[in-house]
Write a structure and sequence with these properties.
The protein is built from nine helices and four strands, in the order αααααααββαββα. With 209 residues, it is an alpha+beta fold. The chain has a single domain, classed as H-NOX domain (Alpha-Beta Complex). A hairpin with an 8-residue loop joins strand 3 and strand 4 (181-187).
Amino acid sequence: MRDGGIGRVLVAALHQGIADLLPARQEFYESWFSPAGLRAGRIGLAPLTAVLSFLRREGDGYARVTSRAGEYAADWTVDRISGLRRAGLRILPRPLRARLALAVVRDLVRQTYGGSRAVVRMRRGGATVDIRSSIFCGVREPAPAPLCGFYKAAFARVLARCDLPAALEITSCRGTGSSGCFVAITLMPAESIPGEPAMVPDPASEASA
């Protein structure tokens, strides 16, 4: 965790999402996400807030970039857990895998921003995740669409990595004027997992090499 409680994985994932989907705008966003700051992990709350504010003016670019960033953050989070725990996420019985996967979901939310946390409530066939103090959703004026798609995409990716295909829906978002951010997860029958985008190395691993 770095300045303002901003996790390195969040900043690196957003930077990669911008590079993937808005390459013509990458130089503009690097006014806040400077390469030197990314390498040192010194991106604070103010530059992150500026980046999110400008992304919201990019039409569908905001949803596309934050969703792609959520997938990267999920991949890097899963790849960094211990080998024993990761093995359990693949081979344990489905109910236990689901509980372990949702524990990873909680960890991911906490690691992206120190002021956020996830409260997971298991229910028959799935779970509901209550995201407290989402870093994406603290806006002055209500947005026309949910702003916490990063988390929806990240949760879906974690579950897919655990062979737990699921349907996810943002049922409430603080950014649209609701009182909180909730993601409903419905686990689906076992089936093939949709194709995955190309993996990008975890920036934290590269930095420690």
